[in-house]
Amino acid sequence: METEKDEMEPLNLWNPAAFEQGVPYDYFRYLRDHEPVTWHSHPVWDGFWSVTRHADVLRVSRDTECFSSQPNPFMAGDQPPSSTDDATSGMLISLDPPDHTKMRKLINRGFTPRRVRDLEGKIQATVDRLIDQVADKSGCEMAGDIAVELPLQVIADLVGVPEEDRHKIFHWTETTFGFDERFTDEERQQASLNMFAYADQMCEIRKKVPHDDLISVLMEAEIDGESLDQLQIDVFFMLLQNAGSETTRNLITTGTLELIRHPEQMQMLKDDPSLIPNAIEELLRYTTPVMQFVRRPRYDTVIGEQEIKAGDPVVLWYSSANRDERAFDDPDTLDITRDASQHVAFGAGGPHFCLGASLARLESKMMFEAIVGRFEGLALGVDDPGTLPRLHSNLIDGYAQLPLRWESVKPAA
Ligand code: HEM
Predict the structure, then answer these.
(1) Domain that holds residue 228
(2) pTM for the full model?
(3) Above 90 in pLDDT, residue 305?
(4) Nearest to 106 by CA among 92, 122, 86
(5) Does residue 6 belong to any structural domain of this protein?
C-alpha cells in the first residue's frame, strides 16, 4: 500500500543530523511512492538528486557510460572541497572505466578467492580470541570490544601489517575516517599522511624481501606492461582500511542488535546454524551499513521520469532501495529465511561492486556463528534501544556503542 501524498517536510539528507535518530525510513518510503527521483538543496553544491527506488539505483549504478564516479562518490558536507578531496579522486572507488578497469584488474591479483580462503584460520582465531576475552564477564560493549577489532585485524592480516604496528594503524584509521567529531581536520590530514608514509615503508621493506601478503602482490602485479605506482598503492592501502573496517563492524553490531530485537529469528539460527549465510544477506539488506554513494551524469539524461542535467550529483540511496516494496515483500520485516539476494548493500552491480564482499561474508559468518552458538541469554544492556548512541554520519549507518549482557558463554567449539 502506498503512503498518502500528504506533503512531508523535506529532510536535509546531506546533513548527518537527519540520521541522528536512525535512518529516516518513513521519509524514504514517501519519496519512493511520490518523488522517487527528487531534488534536494545543499549548502555547497547547487543541489543533488536523491534516487530511492531499487530499479533506478540498479540502472544508475550499472550505466557507467553515462554516470561517472569522478571526482569521488562521496556526498559533500557543508565545507568547501579540501585537499583531502583531491586525494580521493585517485582512489579505486572514484575512477571510471577504462582507468578503473585497469586498476581493479591489478588489485584483483591480490584479492583472489584463494587469498580470502587462506585467511579463514586467522579469522576464526581472531573471533575466538575476541569472545574469549569477554567470556568470563557478564557483559561487554560490543562495538568497541568485539566488532571494531575483527575487521581491523583481518585487513591487517591480509595486507601484512605486523602485530606490533596494528594499533598505530587502527588509531590513524579511526582519526582519518572515524565519525568522531573530536578530531580536527589537521589531525585527520596528519593521520592520512602517516598512513601513506607507513605504506611507503612497507613497500621499501618488501623491495628487499618480498612477503606473502597483499602489499607484495600489489607491488609485483603487472598487466599489459602496466603496474601500480607507489601513490596508487598508498591510496589503496588507505581505502582498504576504511572500506574494510567501518562497514563490517556495523554489520556485526547492528546485526546482533536486530537478532536480539527479533528473538524468534535468533532462535531459528540457534536451532539451525546452516541458516546463517542466508541470515547475513538479510541482515545486509535490513541494516544496509553503507547508506549511499554519489554519481554524476556526463550528459543530460532521464532517471525514471525525471530529467537530469549533466554534472548534477545523483545520490544512490541503498538504504531506501533495500526497503523498496517493489523489490522485496514486506520489506520492513526482518526475515532471515527470505531470498534477499537482490539487496544492494554491496552496491547495485556495475564495476565498483564491493571488492571485499566475499571477505565481509566470511568474517561475518564466523562472527555470527560464534554469537549465536556461544552466548546464552544474550540481551541488550540498556532498556531502550532508542537511547543507544549512533554514528554521526549519513554514509555509514551504525551504533557508536552497543552494551550487551548475557547469562553464560560457551567455550569455542
Ligand atoms: C559489510 C561489509 C561491507 C559493505 C556493506 C560494503 C559496501 C560497499 C559498497 C556499497 C561499495 C560501493 C559499490 C558500488 O559503488 O557499486 C563498496 C566498494 C568497495 N568495498 Fe566494500 N563493503 C563491505 C566490506 C568491505 C571489505 C571487508 C573490504 C575490503 C577488505 C571492502 C572493500 C571495498 C573496496 C576496495 C571497494 C571499491 C571497489 C571499486 O571501486 O572497484 N569492502 N563496498
Answers:
(1) 16-409
(2) 0.96
(3) yes
(4) 92
(5) no
